[in-house]
Amino acid sequence: MAPPNGDIENGDVEKEQATRDHLGAADNDADLGEYGNLVKYISNYRDGRRSSIAGSTYDDAPKKKWYQFGKAKNAQGGTTFEVPEDWLNTDWKQGLSSHDVENRRKKTGWNELTTEKENMFLKFLSYFTGPILYVMEIAVLLAAGLRDWIDFGVIIGILMLNAIVGWYQEKQAADVVASLKGDIAMRSTVIRDGSEQEIKARELVPGDIIIIEDGQVVPADSRIISAYDNPNGYTEYLRELEAQAGESANEKDEDDVGEHKHGSGYAILAIDQSAMTGESLAVDKYVADAVYYTTGCKRGKAYALVTHSAKMSFVGRTASLVTGAKDQGHFKAIMNSIGTSLLVLVMFWILAAWIGGFFHHLHLATPEDSSLNLLHYALILLIVGVPVGLPVVTTTTLAVGAAYLAKEKAIVQKLTAIESLAGVDVLCSDKTGTLTANQLSIREPFVAEGVDVNWMMAVAALASSHNVKSLDPIDKVTILTLKRYPRAKEILAGGWKTIKFTPFDPVSKRITAEVTNTQEGIDYICAKGAPKAILNLSNCSKEVSDMYKAKTTEFARRGFRSLGVACKKGDGDWQLLGMLPMFDPPRDDTASTIAEAQVLGLSVKMLTGDAIAIAKETCKMLALGTKVYNSERLIHGGLSGTTQHDLVERADGFAEVFPEHKYQVVEMLQQRGHLTAMTGDGVNDAPSLKKSDCGIAVEGATEAAQAAADIVFLAPGLSTIVSAIKIARQIFQRMKAYIQYRIALCLHLEIYLVTSMIIINETIGVDLIVFLALFADLATIAVAYDNAHFEQRPVEWQLPKIWIISVILGGLLAVGTWVLRGALFIPNGGIVENFGNIQGILFLEVSLTENWLIFVTRGGNTWPSWQLVGAILGVDVISTLFCVFGWLTMKENDPSDPATKNVLLNTHGGDTSIVTVVIVWGYSIGVTILIAMVYFLLNQISWLDNLGRAKRSRADTQMENILAHLSKVAIAHEQDEHGGNRWHLTTKATEAEEDD
User: Fold this and answer.
1) CB neighbours of 779 closer than 8 A, spacing ≥ 6?
2) Membrane-spanning residues where (predicted)?
3) How far is the C-alpha of 296 from the C-alpha of 508, rounded, in Å?
């Protein structure tokens, strides 16, 4: 019986680094030996919280300043550099010297795959490209052709302002994200100057000796030298190289993995090459085999020699073949769609204006008076018809949003992931560390009859990894629990040597270690793993087996995860020793977070490798639901296509899940129209993270999972993910509000100006028009920093709804402007006795109502930010000054009667009285209130509210069943009585039949 000293907690402990510092170099103390170091670790360990794998605080390499153009400070090396043969003759115990590393890096560059270093000047020029910007550039040429140099200069100023603001804001936000991205940079253990060092993977050079172990991404194309614990490995490596050199002159291709006949006898590493080959099964790697950059190590630990840096790696050379073949992405497609539609509308309104102009006998061009020709009207419509700030504001809103997320410890790998995260309606979450606290504790163990509990605990520790720097949670809690068993610690310190260690294998579901007791000279094989796997391994009586199964069921019903322990002495039979019940309590905030997620229209599904009883008990604790199914029902479960899809949709979770099950769940949900997010932390999760619409690497994830994810979280728990989803929806709301606002502005002036041209042959001066465009952009620069609400359901663009509402709002703005213009036709001064300058009054009304429209489209759920209010107020003050002093409106000899000549109206010397300005402000407020009421009513119409929303649960039952039947079809071959061959379709055997 174990002493009742309480549970030893494990998992996410806060002061792990401090604990390691306290332990010092215990793991490097050669005098203590392998298990002496482990015993010292057990004795000295102090509870704390584990730092995230991603939480390193090493300084980044020097970055080139934003104002430095041209080449990077450190040469990246040419892609044609061939590694000299003598570079690969590194002493595997000494490694490279610091001097060698610097010399080699000058020729090969950093070990990283980066896009071509972006020239800052070309980056700035990119803000002048796109359908919308091209239209404004045509307007520049048109203004120059009409010799309208003031407008020419102002339009160029608008373009420059947008480019400068967009470039600066995006760079500023990118710097925030990049600073945190440095914390999740891939790291590698390397032998240099005779000692092991942990460095950033980008610092590796060809010839480096590295250590690769399970859970890591291979940091560069390398060749395996030997297993980590094999002192004679280098001799075997040289022998294998000689054998390969003496083989046939027909060399195999680099990607012909596994065809070589190996002389080493056993696999050293198991490598996940799914990212390269699409093959989900791990590939065994032997001495002198090549392992490739960005593949993941799933099992084993070995020394390897770096043969090529990233650019000349297999993956790097493949990537170079598709350089420039960039997918524009969904967000870019949406922006281009809006820009193209606005461009078509501009062409329509220009055509309408020209038709009206012909009836008014206007010339195409009159150089002596550029204000009285059709090209002048075209220039005005080009300026007002395309929102030059649209691409910049939306892109910088995403960039600033990424910086917001970074402050919440969510590192966005690509900006478009924000859009995906905002639209997610199903979150497939792992259990450990996300729904639970990842603080494992071992309760009172079950010990088989006649077995000493101390011996069982010692065997469990022997069947654990002994690398105290990178213990997984289960191994860690197993080892630290020996604090409660002093006799087990004595056994562990009694002279043991590991012959072979096999990490956890998801197929066999166990860990095994072949060890030797050096004092007794006896060999043992120790194993721990899933209770069923350990029971199948052991030779025990039916009574012991039944008791073991009953105890497993009891532990599962109590929410405990069980770990079976067994050992084999010499050539004897396997002996079942007992079972360790582990408990990982739910996080304090998980239940409330799940309830909040459901309010947000987010369905949370738990995918866990635990037994179904444990999974159901966990779901009960979290109020997640009890529709938890065994993963066997997914693959070879005997369900038809539609039934299987229905099962996945209604399930609250799946138990005993393998990586292929996660991938299948994501795929089926996507086939039903759901936008799916998947969380993961291990190498095995990489395929499903890539497959999902938004892959999320949780805190403490391996490098492989981080590389496959769209977003990397540096803080634990489900609450951080749900908070990030809310922030993403706020970012989306800012963009959506701005797009509605900007489309309405374009339509407002297009409708008013074209109708005024046709009816009274009047327009607002082009000088004022360009300032209206300038003010609209100035006022909305702060949109990216506005306070925004988030929808209580997954968001979508709903372009039909956006266009309908924008057209209505633009039409109302045009009606408001026409009402004011009509009032100015009234005798004796119109709205007041001395109404002042007509163009100034119209300019002020248009500017005010357009600026205030953003307060309508942003919604009234939150107060606007001080940045947005300040920007709008500043522009309103400038517009008022334009009106009061008649800036750009004073023209001599312009008559006041529109019936006398086709002119731009201008009266009373250009200035406007303060009384008139106050009245225009009041009138504009009234128009804005009316528009706000209409906008509110439009959003209450249910069919309009749902217009353009995709059906999230759409079942194509016919296609699902066809595909399900096809997956069960096989081609059979048989011979007829005359010896002829015949091929026909038949049904595949079931899994049970295949096993037989």
Assistant:
1) 851, 854, 871, 872, 875
2) 124-143, 149-168, 342-362, 374-405, 739-760, 766-790, 802-826, 838-856, 868-888, 914-938
3) 19
- Confidence band, pLDDT 50/70/90 cuts, at residue 959: low
pLDDT of residue 366: 65
Q: Are residues 753 and 871 in the same domain?
A: yes
- CB neighbours of residue 649 within 10 Å: 17
**Mean pLDDT of the chain, nearest integer:** 77
Last residue of a domain, one of 694, 714, 734: 714
412, amino acid identity: V
* Residues near 231 by beta carbon (within 8 Å), at least 6 away in sequence: none
Q: Which of 583, 611, 643 is the last residue of a domain?
A: 583
Whether 452 is catalytic is: no
- Please give the Cα distance from 307 to 328 (Å, whole number): 34
Query: Which helix (DSSP H) or strand (DSSP E) does residue 654 occupy?
Result: strand 653-655
Look at residue 773 in the predicted model and tell me its pLDDT.
77
pLDDT digits (tens, 9 = 90+) for 537-581: 888 888 888 899 899 888 888 878 889 999 998 888 899 999 999
Distance of CA 597 to the CA centre of its chain: 19
Shared-domain flag, residues 464 and 480: yes
> What range does the domain containing 811 cover?
357-402+726-942
Q: Which of 430, 685, 693, 710 is catalytic?
A: 430
- Give residue 562's pLDDT: 87
Q: Please name the amino acid found at residue 398.
A: L
CB atoms within 10 A of CB 516: 15
Residues 802 and 911 grouped into a single domain = yes
* Strands 628-630 and 653-655, bridge-based pairing: parallel
Distance of alpha carbon 16 from alpha carbon 700, whole angstroms: 13
CA separation for the pair 115, 320 (Å, rounded)? 10
- Give the pLDDT of residue 836: 66
Q: CA-CA distance, 968 to 990, in Å (whole number)? A: 9
Helices and strands in the chain: count of H runs, count of E runs: 33, 26
Determine phi and psi for 15, rounding to 5 degrees: -120, 40
Other C-beta atoms within 10 Å of 9: how many?
20
Distances (CA, A) of 24 to 45, 58, 464: 11, 19, 21
